[in-house]
Structure formats: C-alpha cells, structure tokens
Amino acid sequence: MPTTKGRQSRKSSKAARSLRAWLSKHKQLDSSRPTRSSSSSSSESSNSIEDLFINSLYLTTASLSSNNTLNNLCTSQQKIMAYERRKNNAVADSDEMDFYQVIHNSFLLELMRNTICIGCKEQWNGKIHIILYCSLAFTCQKCEHTIQINTSKMIPDTKHRDINIRVQLGAHLAGIGRAGVAKIFGTMNIPPPVKEDHYEEIDRKLLLPCIKKFQHQSMQAAIYEFVDENEGDPTNLTISEDGTWQRRGSKSIHGIAAVLSCNTTPNVLDVQRLSKKCVICTGALSVKNTDPDLYVEIINNHDCESNYDGSSGGMESQGIQDIFKRSVPNYQAQYTRYIGDGDSSVMWNLTQHPPYPDIKIEKIEDINHWSKRMLYRLEKLTQELKDTMLDPEKKRKGIGGVNRLTKDK
Domain Mutator-like transposase, which positions (predicted)? Predict the structure, then answer.
C-alpha cells in the first residue's frame, strides 16, 4: 500500500526531479554531444537507437520547455538557418551537416564530371552504379578507377542503416506503415523501403523495445508531475479514462484502454492493449495436424498477443480494471475518482472487483458524453411520439414543434 502523504510527497518529488533531470539531459543531447571526429570511421557511425529516437521526437513535436528559436521552426527552416550560419562563418561544422538531403543521381554524376580522376589524373568521365541500397560507385571509363561511397551511416551494434531506421520511425509517427512509405517513395521516384520481413524485424528487435522503454519513462514522469500538482498526495488522484477499438462497432478483435491525468497539462498515465487473437497462434494451426511437435514448440515458445477472451464491448472495462490494479505496484499511486462516459461497464466492474481494499471508487460523469446520450434519447422519444395525440385541446401530436421540444440548428 502507498506510504503516508508526507513521506510519499518527498519521495515522489525527489523522483520527479531525478526524472526531469534525465529528460533535460536528453533534450540537450544535440548541444552537449562532443564534436565528432573527422575520421572516416566516425563518419560511418550513426547515433544509437535511443539517441535517434529522441532526436526524431524533438524534431517532429513542438518544444514546450525551450525558448530556442530553432526548436519552434520546422525541419526545413532549421536546415536553411544552419546553412546560413555555415555560409556566414565560413566554417564547416560536422554536426551541422548531420542531416539528409534529397538529390537526383544525375546531379551527382554532373558533379563528378567536374572533378579530376585520382587514377589517371584526367578529367573524370565515367558511370554511376548502385551496388547496394545504400552504396554508390563511380567508375572512371579511362582507368576504371572506382570510388565507392555509402549514402547512410550504420547504427552502432546493429546491421541496419541509419536512413532505414529513420524512415521506419517516421512512418510510425505519421501512422502510415510500410505501405504508405512505399507510396510516398514511388511518387518521389525513390527506391522502395526495406522488404517486409526486414521491416518487421526492425520493428520487433529495435524500435519496439526502445519505444516501450520510453513509454514507461514518459508515463512515470507524468505520474510524478501529477502527484506534485496534487499536493504530493498519491493516494487520492482524479483521472479520466476512455477506450477505443481497431474497428468501429462491437466486433473488433483489438482494443485499447487509457487513463489520463486531470491536471494543468493532461498526460497519459497508463495504457492497456487487449487482443482476442494472436497471429502466431493462428498461423501455428496450419501445422497442428501435420506436425504436432512443431505446433507445441511454437505455442510454448512465443509471446502470445492474445490476452482477452470476452466480448469486444467489454475491452474498455477490463483494460481500465487492469490499469487500476497495477497503479500501486507500478507507481505507488491510487486512482480514487475518474471521469468517464456512461456507455461502458467500467464503474460496475470497479465496484464488483475493487482494485484497492476498503476504498470506494467515485465516478464523475463526462458532461460531453452525458449531453450526447441525452440528445440521442430525446430525439428517439420525439420520433416515437410524433403520431401520438398528447394535447387534444390544441390537437397537436408529439412533443416537437414551435414552443415545444425543438432541435437547435
């Protein structure tokens, strides 16, 4: 159970300061990173997955804590301003050149034709070859001397290129997936992204673990901030909750529930994914009869995605129940009041299965959902009574019309 209010306040405040310091450190990652060496080995090595993830987030979201002008500009504006600084200072800064520029191959070939071949010492005149997806080779036709360059750096301790990881991370942030990236690349006459199996491998082995780590740290920081604004009391927090599904209606096999803080700046405190189907379990059924041993091995040695077997409409209720139950072991916090809609069984579930001993959960009705349901019922009642004589003296039917129930346009 949570500790006393005063003790927990000091504990949470200390944790909040620690985590904020960690976040501040990563916000200043670009400015505090040491100047890179100009050696070829350093130029071929990119940032780690975590650094890349952080940098991408800060380039695609507005900064809330910095007054730096560059943080409030789009990426293209940042590139232009960086170029102007380099031009004015006449200094080539390797860090300021750490970005990608889209260029047509014909212009690279034109550039090479204005150089001297180091093999034959004559003006270069050759061809360009694409050896691999991220490698180009320029071969002189006279002496056959070849210069090979890479178009992207390597991610340390991996076999993947920086550009591939950035494209995939950008696809997730934009919510388009590999198919969407392929369409964009096709329109821009750029070679397609990595193959589907490699795309899934990057997701599973690199991006997903990193995202989960930062998801936990972000929600933990949100809890600490929430507790601080609640006078340091983690035992009496008011949250808002809601659920959504992959598909509309009550037949979706995937759903998600989430709770948010009710403070000055609402933040996501926790999320719960619920699935009634596992792709691996379904695929293993194809070998269940032909190779029972393989089937058993697959079933027993995979992380099953299926964690719910009830109705789709009950996903929100179960998800919120799971989130409430783990609030104490994960964050030493208790959600005693919540703002929710009236179209789910969350309150009933929390009442029948209390997440906290001897503590009653209080529900605050969401006025927007309440108004929507009231409007729906009034419209339905108006439709049902439209042919019913309710005022014989004035010979008027129904409850609608002038000086009666009307729908505001």
Answer: 134-391
Strands (E) in 262-383, as ranges, are 268-275, 335-340, 362-365
Contact in structure between 331 and 234 (CB atoms under 8 Å): yes
Per-residue tokens: 346:
């969350």
Among residues 325, 361, 225, 329, which one has the least CA distance to residue 2? 329
- pLDDT value at position 383? 83
| 357-363 long-range Cβ contacts below 8 angstroms, 24+ apart | 359/334, 360/336, 361/324, 361/335, 361/336, 361/337, 362/336, 362/337, 362/338, 363/337, 363/338, 363/339
CB-count burial class (<10 Å; 0-12, 13-18, 19+) for 169: buried
pTM over cut 0.85? no
Q: Which residues of the chain have a pLDDT value below 50?
A: 1-16, 18-23, 25-42, 62-71, 90-94
Distance CA 29, CA 23 (A): 10
